[in-house]
Amino acid sequence: MTRSSGIDVAVSTAILTLRRTDRGVVLSLPLVRRTREPFADRWALPGGWLTATEAPVGAAARTLAETTGLAPSYLEQLYAFGAVDRSPSRVVSIVYWALLRSDQVDAQSAEYRRTGLAPENVRWFDADDLPPLAFDHAQIIEYALWRLRNKVGYSRVAQGFLPEEFTLAELREAVETILGRRLDPANFRRQVESSGTLIATDEFRTGNHRPARLYRSSPDAELADRGPLSSEEMSIR
Amino acid sequence: MTRSSGIDVAVSTAILTLRRTDRGVVLSLPLVRRTREPFADRWALPGGWLTATEAPVGAAARTLAETTGLAPSYLEQLYAFGAVDRSPSRVVSIVYWALLRSDQVDAQSAEYRRTGLAPENVRWFDADDLPPLAFDHAQIIEYALWRLRNKVGYSRVAQGFLPEEFTLAELREAVETILGRRLDPANFRRQVESSGTLIATDEFRTGNHRPARLYRSSPDAELADRGPLSSEEMSIR
DNA sequence: TCAAAAGTGTTCAGTATACACCCATGT
DNA sequence: ACATGGGTGTATACTGAACACTTTTGA
């Protein structure tokens, strides 16, 4: 029986989060330094070979956890890349994209600094300042960012970056960072309030100015509508 | 080196077109009767194993041509399905979805009838009246239809079903069939005219009533915006 | 002349946008 | 008190939906 022998299947994930830097909040993602050929010493998306007993989405979740020590707030398949010449050997990569909550990333980083147990060969990069990448991973990241910017317009994926409770200004800052442009605070407030995806709490974030009400994501709804695929993605087996 | 050995890669395509039947225009797709286990004698999406020298999109275009004798007016990757238990052996299917022009399908069918050279084991089914399918192909088709219905709202994929020249009523009928609901002719006209994706010709379709102006798709624009992926999909090598 | 589809005009509601303005807090 | 961000009000423009109306053909 003729099979697709000689083709290997890999799973990689573009793991996105927002990080507060000296240049404000920026989109960032963790990359892994390759230790082997091809592209030894180059940075690449976290991932690995798909094993015989693991679903692709499970492999994505696993490598994500291995790389970051965290669980994603959102995980969706991006695309299957399979051009013949994208790797010296024949590799089809099923690529996922994921969102991490900023606070969890920060907490994890602090923990790593405290314990000195940070993973080797993993580093966070700003999405707009990437090093030379292995394979076609630069184009893959470009597509992942396009998908994120697209989806932020008609879904609530931006909430995947934020902690349990957040102010509308924080949510707006997340969206502004993703889109790369400023939004009118008044209109943003009304739009997101009327969307019904937020639950107002009785708490307020007290800071330098008038306290801002804290909101939380409504728990019943998905961050994005994935149609009939919801069940598939859900079952990480 | 540990590879994903034991995993085979297949490429399948949900090939969609509109066909005029006794119950009006309906979404239809060609299925292939399987001749081997597993699921022998069941109907399945056209496809085959990914070969070592072929890009996935090329394999999709090839099997599409082998099944229908036609070239698609639109071809896009749908999803990579890889659940462990979706097949007795471990198979990852990269699934595409494609649109065929109705007139080309009709012409091809007439040709087959004339010459008696219709492909064996291929049959067209109405999308809302499918037989029991092999593997997870029923869910795959459901997802392809969801994607089509979704995309028809913010792109001009519906034009992929129509011939070079068509009336606004024909375009509207296509959209109505996809969405499963009637649209206001007046509003539809204005929306599609203001979108700038159509070019009015000087010809008219003469029929039972007032002649309707013929339009053609503007050639410069894609049927749908696929962002940075346009180049990938284009290169069918 | 009449039925029916092609095509135009108009109204109305909902939504995006711009921006003026008031509110509540820390300094 | 005042600067600053939180939060409300409002005017305007645009868009989608509903529907009345005119035009043009074949029968």
Summarize the structure.
By secondary structure, the first copy, chain A, is an alpha+beta fold.
Could you name the ranges of chain A where pLDDT drops below 50 across 5 or more consecutive residues?
Answer: none
Radius of gyration of chain A: 19 Å
Helix content of chain A: 25-40%
CATH topology type of chain A: Nucleoside Triphosphate Pyrophosphohydrolase
Overall geometric form of chain A: globular
**SSE topology string of chain A:** EEEEHEEHEHEHHEEH
Helix count of chain A equals 6
Largest sheet geometry of chain A: 7 strands, mixed
CATH superfamily of chain A: Nucleoside Triphosphate Pyrophosphohydrolase
Largest inter-chain contact set: A-B, 41 and 41 residues
If you average the pLDDT of chain A, what whole number results? 94
Please indicate the percent range of residues of chain A in DSSP E strands (runs of 2 or more): 25-35%
Oligomer: homodimer
Kindly give the count of domains of chain A: 1
* Class by alpha and beta content of chain A: alpha+beta
Count of extended strands of chain A:
10
Q: Name the CATH architecture of chain A.
A: Alpha-Beta Complex
- Distance linking N and C termini of chain A: 29 Å
* CATH class categorisation of chain A: Alpha Beta
